[in-house]
Write a structure and sequence with these properties.
Blueprint (H helix, E strand, L loop, with lengths): L8 E11 L2 E7 L11 E6 L4 E2 L4 E2 L3 E9 L2 E7 L3 H7 L6 E8 L11 E7 L4 H9 L5 E6 L2 H4 L8 E5 L6 E2 L2 H8 L4 E6 L2 H13 L4 E4 L15 E3 L5 E3 H4 L2 E3 L8
Parallel strand pairs: 9-10, 9-13, 10-11, 11-12, 13-14
Antiparallel strand pairs: 1-2, 1-8, 2-7, 3-6, 3-8, 4-5, 6-7, 14-17, 15-16
């Protein structure tokens, strides 16, 4: 029987894969709702979810679902702080608490347009599952810090890569590659750090190309209760990334920041 997306589930890590500095947790979730590409889950380790002498608990971390296969949800992690460090310690057989899938996912390209996937760093995660679900082939361009991080590109098929230091692929930003690809025949799907997403948004606006952006934001709850992830919209209002996004039309935003 399927569980509710708002029911926190105690699940088991089925396996761990490594791609350079990234780890992919494969989490067995046979009763969980299948995610839409672009949705996310809130993750916490079931044991020792805290730090310091009193093991003060960390907030749950939001992670896009990178793949859904054989009743397993895959999550792409990078050890960048105490909370992600604890999650990166998990091995096959360990347990974690999962809330999700949550939020709004990607929508199919407009008629007459093909998908162009643009990712940076761990932002490649939701693009992997989206590539799996698309009915037609998509172009993929990904940006990383260096060759070590660029090993994450193996999560997607036929990706063109840019690196900041030029150690693999194009020497420069992923938006350099994007600028060459923009036309009236594409629709952009992007996820990555805010600076990258803002550059993507501005380029797409300049070329009148529709874009769907999967925003990254710190979240305390994941379901709209805390209002900790609000962003301003072009109409003067605000949206909550966790429930109105994380995937939003670039045209709805003044800027990403």
């Amino acid at each position: 029987m399927s569980c509710s997306t708002l029911e926190r589930r105690r699940l088991t890590v089925a396996g761990v894969d490594e791609y350079g500095p990234y780890r992919v947790l494969r989490v067995a979730d046979p009763d969980g709702p299948p995610p839409d590409a672009g949705q996310f889950s809130m993750l916490t380790a079931a044991e020792r979810w805290g730090g310091g002498e009193d093991e003060r608990p960390y907030l749950p971390r939001a992670f896009s679902v990178a793949r859904w296969r054989d009743d397993e949800a895959h999550y792409l992690l990078e050890d960048v702080g105490p909370g992600t460090n604890r999650l990166c310690e998990l091995e096959a057989g360990d347990e974690l608490l999962v809330l999700g899938p949550l939020g709004q996912g990607f929508r199919a390209p407009q008629e007459g347009r093909r998908a162009l996937l643009v990712g940076g760093g761990v932002g490649i995660a939701p693009l992997a599952i989206w590539q799996d679900e698309l009915d037609t082939p998509a172009s993929v361009i990904l940006g990383f810090r260096d060759a070590h991080h660029a090993e994450g590109a193996a999560l997607l098929r036929d990706a063109e890569v840019a690196t900041d230091d030029g150690s693999v692929g194009h020497h420069g930003y992923v938006t350099d590659l994007l600028a060459r690809e923009l036309s009236e025949h594409v629709e952009v799907y992007a996820c990555g750090p805010p600076q990258m997403l803002e550059a993507v948004r501005a380029l797409c606006e300049e070329h009148a190309v529709p874009a769907q952006l999967a925003l990254e934001s710190g979240m305390a709850c994941g379901f709209g209760a805390c209002f900790g992830c609000v962003v301003p919209t072009r109409d003067g209002g605000y949206m909550r990334v966790c429930v109105d996004g994380p995937v939003v039309d670039a045209a709805e935003l003044v800027e990403v920041g």
